[in-house]
Every structure is written in structure tokens, then in C-alpha cells.
Amino acid sequence: MHVKICNAGDYQRVARSILPTPLYEYLASGTDDEQTLSENESAFKAWYLRPRVMRPVGSISTVTTLFGQRLSMPVFVSPAGVHALCDEVHGECAAARACGKVGTIFGLSQHATRSIEQVAEATQGNTNLWYQSYILKDREMTLRLARRAAKAGYRGIFLTVDSVRFGFREADARNNFSSLPEPHRLVNYDDEVSQAQHPKKAWVAPEASVDKSKIYSGQEEAWDQNTEQLFEQNPSWEDVRWLKREVCRDLPLIVKGIMTAEDAIEAKKAGADGVMVSNHGGRGLDSALPTIDVLPEIVAAVGDQFPVLLDSGIRRGTDVLKALALGATAVGIGKPLFFALSVGGEDAVLNLLQMFQRETEAAMAICGCKSVSDVTRQLVTRHPSGSGRVGKYERSKL
């Protein structure tokens, strides 16, 4: 089947046609009834752009900065694990190199299938790498992993705080998707965890064929659940202060997984340098609000000088523009990355990122914005029939 790839959705359609159903549904699904998964995308459609005309837009720049780091566009790759399910040869290195070519951030998941050091070596200093951390029960392991990233030249830390428990994905249960195929491993744990202290299956896949059609045995407890056992079950905001003090004095620390103004304020008080509005792409708590709907209250609560990132639901350049207009500094993509990686590896990821840049640039031009700084709250309005809320912290309404 030949499909002309024109947008992120095309990559998903092609991925669905070529991947084994269990793998596709693992990548595409959400938890429970998938309400949040669905509404992450549809909520953007309740926001409308208000284009301004007769403005000089002969030269458009999508360049932005984050903590003094130059990004070619306000779109980056959010940290998400197990890239080797989509690109068995290169894993996370493929997408990381693509980010370097386009000039944006690549977020490496703690649950990657290529190590902190392998990705740094593969990109040879050409990619702006950030590392994603969880607070583990083993606090020293948490610090060692983050310090490895700092030593390897990573330029920031995403601290994910919304995954004390993983949501239940019914598609995985129905498909018996329960194990990561050998030789793929959650390699960042390999040098850190003593096998005498923890069950091997908590971070190493049980034996299985690399053939993607044969990896869904259903004989092991779900590897998500095993990995979850490593996480601190009683976290507090003091953990943010601790990580900032111990590792991130010279690195920006973004707290990822913020969905309320109240928690954004707490993160700021705890010493975070910014927050990331995220509901884990609908893979955490079902019935959580779409990220675009809570963004305005969070921006209003922390102030427009405090960086607020967003992911979950970004599929078009117009989505990027709407998020920027509502106060986001930049936005991350996750699922579109996996679908592109499955279809064509590094080249497809590069094409995906370039499409986002082209779409964002075109939307800016049509709306009369020469630069990212021209994108303001006056650019968007909410359709009267739009669902969801924006919260008591929202600033002036149109």
C-alpha cells in the first residue's frame, strides 16, 4: 500500500496497516474508556484562531528559546520509552539524531532501550538532549541516573510526577501484551540495579523472539507493572527540592505531569524552573481533563515569565499555535513520533518534525505573526459550544 504522507495522521494510518495489532494498540491506546485519549485531540478543535491580516509576514521565524537554549521551533520530542519497539536497530538514537538535524530538544525516557551514554554518543553533541527522571524508591539510583545524564552533556531534566501508578490499558490486556522482547532492555537500569535486590523482570524483558508477531505471550506479569514497583509510592514536593539541590543546580528542572494551577504553584515553590502540562497522552488517569483546557489556568497561576510546556494531543501546526497563544512556551509530541519511527525510522521522524515546522510557520503567517513573540492570547477564542473548562485562574477573556 502506497500512501502519500502529508501530516502526522498519515503516519498513524500507515503504522496501523503495517504493525502487528498488539504493538499498534500498545502505542495508540489509552486507559479505561480512553476518554482523555480522545479528548486530548478533540479539545483543540474547541479553540479557534482569530487571524490578523494586512501585516508584514514576508519572513517568518519559528525560532524560540528555552532557558537560553535555541530551538528552531516550539516543538520538541517528549520523553517516551521503548523506541526499539518501533526501530529495533537504532532505538532512541534514531529520533535523537532527527531532533539534532531539525534543531530541537529530544527527551530521553528513563525507560529507554538505549542508554543515556549511547544516545549522547550517537548524536555527537549535535542534539539538545534532555533526560527524564522518576523518583524511585532507591533514591541513590535516582541520583546516579540523573548525574549520568548531566555528565553525558544533557542540558535539562524532566521530572515526571504523574506515574506513581500506571493506568490500566485494556487493549494490552486483550492482546496479552505483557513482555518486552529480547534483546530489548530498559538499559538505563542495567548498571544501576542489583539483581540480588530486585526481581530481574522489573527491568529486563523475559526471553522472547525479536519477531514482533510473537512477543505477546501473556505468560508474564505486565512489564509496566513490574517497572512500576521501582517507583516511590509516597512522593512529596520535598523530592523536587532534593533533586534540584543534588543534581540540577546548573541544569533546568521541568516538573512534568502538572494538570492543576495548585500543583503548578507548588512546583514553582519547590524550586522547579518550569512545569510541563501533561496527562501522559491519556495513558494515566482516564477522565483527566485535556491538557489544552487546563493550560490557561496554569499559565495564569505561575505567571508568564515561568516556562510552561505542554504535551498530549498535539497533531497539527495549528495545535502548536493555539497552545502558544494560551501561554505555552513550547509543546511536545509523543504518539506521532512513534508512528513515524515505525514507518520510516530516523528519516520519517525528521520529516514529521519538518512537517510540524512547516505547518506552524504557515499558520503563523496566515494569522499575521512574524515570530513566536507575536503569538498572544488575543489570537484564540473558545467556541461557545466548546466543552471543558479553563479554570478560575484564567486571565482576561475575549
From TrEMBL:
**Record organism:** Thalassiosira pseudonana (Marine diatom)
Positions binding FMN in this chain are P79, A80, G81, S109, T160, K256, S278, D311, S312, G313, I314, R315
Which prosthetic group or cofactor does it need? FMN
Q: Which UniProt keywords apply?
A: Flavoprotein, FMN, Oxidoreductase
Listed EC numbers: 1.1.3.15
Supply the Pfam families for this chain.
FMN_dh
Q: Which GO terms describe its molecular function?
A: (S)-2-hydroxy-acid oxidase activity; FMN binding
Alphabetized InterPro entries for the sequence: Aldolase_TIM (IPR013785), Alpha-hydoxy_acid_DH_FMN (IPR012133), FMN-dep_DH (IPR000262), FMN_HAD (IPR037396)
The record's comment on protein family reads: Belongs to the FMN-dependent alpha-hydroxy acid dehydrogenase family.
Q: Where is the FMN hydroxy acid dehydrogenase domain?
A: 1-385
Which superkingdom, per the lineage? Answer: Eukaryota
What name goes with this protein? Answer: Glycolate oxidase
Active-site residues (renumbered): H280 (proton acceptor)
* Residue positions binding glyoxylate: Y26, Q132, Y134, R169, H280, R283
